[in-house]
Amino acid sequence: MIRSLVFRNKEYRFINTASYQEPHNAFTVLVGKNGTGKSTLLSALVNRLAPEYSEEDKAILIDNITLPFLVAENLDNVIAVSSSPFDKFPIVSRYKNLTRGKYRYLGLRDGNGQNLGLSYMAKIISDLIDSIQRDNAQWSNLSEVLSYLDFKNEIVVKLQCNISRALIESIIEEGVYPPMLFNDRQRSDLIVEALRTIYGKEKARTQSMNIFLDINEMGINAYNRKTVFNSEQIITLMKVGILTLKDVALVKNGQNTLFSIKDSSSGEQSVILSVLGIASHITNNSVIFIDEPEVCLHPEWQQKYIQMLLSTFKKFTGCHFIIATHSPQIIAKLESENCYVVSMDTASITDAAELINNSVDFQLAQVFKSPGFKNEYLSRLAFNLFVKVGKHKQFDEEDLANYQVLKSSHKLLEDADPVKELITVILSLHKRYA
Length: 434
Prior knowledge:
Largest sheet: 7 strands, mixed
Protein name: Putative ATP-binding protein involved in virulence
CATH class of the largest domain: Alpha Beta
GO molecular function: ATP binding; ATP hydrolysis activity
Oligomer: single chain
Distance between the termini: 45 Å
Number of domains: 3
Domain AAA+ ATPase: 24-345
InterPro entries: AAA+_ATPase (IPR003593), AAA_GajA/Old/RecF-like (IPR041685), ABC_transporter-like_ATP-bd (IPR003439), Bact_Antivir_Def_Nuclease (IPR051396), P-loop_NTPase (IPR027417)
Number of strands: 16
Organism: Chitinophaga dinghuensis
Number of helices: 15
Low-confidence stretches: 53-63, 94-100
CATH architecture of the largest domain: 3-Layer(aba) Sandwich
């Protein structure tokens, strides 16, 4: 858990030690206007917790945190998640990722090619396969995610060959190694052997270059229309880019037809891949940084996303989810225990129990300090207070608390807003009767 730290000369508490119940997971949501440093703080924390993977960024970002005041313990795994191409997380190269260190970046910025969506999908699926290879029990995490989304416990991956058949034959028959194979002779031998096994046989030369992977509780099975392959060899070719992702399909419960993730909305893709990516890597005592998960998401999916995180990963202990967001829906659907909202502007921490299950207008006014025009929560609060004080000619304790809310919101409203006009009247009543 990350309990507290000093950032830009402010001390932030990420957990309320008085209410936190160990060893359950904690959720800390960072809110604040653009420019208050939410994304920079997340990136700096990653650099602090997994510095060996971010040498280029470390010199720039590490000074933003006063290191002696970072209170963190038992952090075995660091995961950074973003569906925005503008996140500030450090990037791990493909080959560093094979070292199986404790940092995983699940985002768009290290993708290859122009199709960022497909590149992001390929990264998540590659990580998913890698985690199952290391430990087939990891499938249970992925199975829970699929079940929550109402899919069967199976993933079908379609791969395509990224090099020509002529080049494959040159590698197999003439020993012509492409540049991607020069650096590591042992790896080169494995790749050549895989190509010889899959494409070298006479019958393979008339087959489709596409290959499928079935991923389920039994493991990973590789095949095309006529042949079953060694999945280890297929995965070897994936890792070096000879085989690349073409599509990923799931099966809805109660149906037998494949559902292509590429055909889903950008929001559905974002949620499915993001949570599958986390499920591929999460362990007890992980810290998971998520930057603006609401990007591309309809408000309904914003609610589903946070509910999925809260529900799906309950079986893990000691994990800390730290989320930077502008979404009132995410705040509203937090749970009452072990969830906290931290303001970047004031460095204050609030137990989510005080904020959840309220309207979007409440969240906009109270949490995000951006009430907008004709905010219904403020309008109702102001009208009720106006009627009550007008009748009794005094402010009781509850009235004074509501008055402070209205007073702090007064300067955030447009002059033409009728709610501001009503609050102005209440300010005058306070001078007379308080």
